[in-house]
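$ run holo --ligand "adenosine-5'-triphosphate" --emit tokens
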Amino acid sequence: MIQKPKGTIDLFGQKGKIFKNIEMYTHDFMELYNFEFVKVPMFETSGLFKRGVGESTDIVNKETYDFFDKGNREMTLRPEFTAGVVRSYIENKEYSYNRLKKYYYFGSCFRYERPQSGRLREFTQFGVEVIGVKSAKLDADIIYMAYKYLGGLGIKNLKIKINTLGDNDSRNKYKEILKDYISKDYENLCDLCKDRFERNPLRILDCKYDGNRDYIKNAPKTIDYLNEESINYFNDVKSALETLGVNYEVDTTLVRGLDYYTHTVFEIVSDTDDLGLASTICGGGRYDNLVSVLDGPDNPAVGFALGIERIITILEKDNNSILSDSIDVYIMNLVNDYLPYKLNNDLRENGYITEINYEEKNMKSQWKIVDELNPSFVFIIGEDEINNGYVTIKDNKTKEQNKVKIEEVIEYLNTYY
Ligand code: ATP
Ligand code: MG
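-- output --
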């Protein structure tokens, strides 16, 4: 039997429903904030990610799905959206409007990772990219928005962590100081971090292994090496968050994986045990260099991405409101007649969610279906109902039962909604 590839999942039943409802919620949510939906290709030329994510990152270094197409072009399945969205912004000259552009996306990403709890090879990201303005207040708005988004889904016990990498000067200076510090402990680094030492030393700070060791925990902090402009900027972000009444924690080891982050970085973390080491649901920050690195104008930007499957893992545990919509009516059809069939379609036309049995089934097997579907009402239609022009309506919660004339069924139902 052919099985799904390692690190992929099928979402159906309850999980499929949560996924679909999250996607719908996302579109509604973003409308309130007046963001534009953007759809970019699922694969791009490999060079885009090498430049846009950074050759020094873990993602491009070992996690991408690369292939040559039949025209011998080197392609990569998108491991994230930011590079593609920024490419689209530049290629379509969206910057010529000379104003803030606010995009959001929702779709699959691909990374060749070791599959484990919360870590897949195909996963879904929802995220935003806001391009054209550098403002601490905007950064705070974006952080708060991500938090509100998760809260609106009913996720509790979330923690917002923020940090700053400062501007280019501050970050480069810090990088050298950090390397100097870590070099004294080089031999004790895990293999991955040994490899990161030259290409991406900042990432050692949030290594799942080394990041928890005292030596690394006590490493110099970005915050102590910022120039004045960078310190002021970070203070403004904090003040803006406080203005909105947002609880946050400054985590001086938070660095994020990409090369082009500047100033604000943040994560939203869940306290659930179900995700193991993959408890970060959302990550983001400011990336003022990326647009120009991809040959666009020197426009600043800020954004975040969050993992939908990690959200599903949390939501399926709770008896969540995102699942509460059930069907309105199950028509228990016990006769071979067109009347139940017609009634089913009439109910739909009046906006009711219904199910009916198309095959003749006995009552016993249909009550099993009722148990599964858990409708608000069961309409029972047998010989007596047909002959006398009524429907037996059972309220599935109170178990109360009434005989209602066929012509009055919709009216009767309307009184409950
Ligand atoms: P991590 O540190 O967990 O590897 P990351 O820094 O690689 O995360 P980002 O590139 O910032 O993650 O992606 C943003 C979000 O996308 C993550 O916070 C997470 O929710 C989700 N995500 C990233 N990689 C995976 C994956 N392999 N499987 C499922 N979700 C993922
Ligand atoms: Mg990762």
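-- notes --
The chain has 15 helices and 16 strands.
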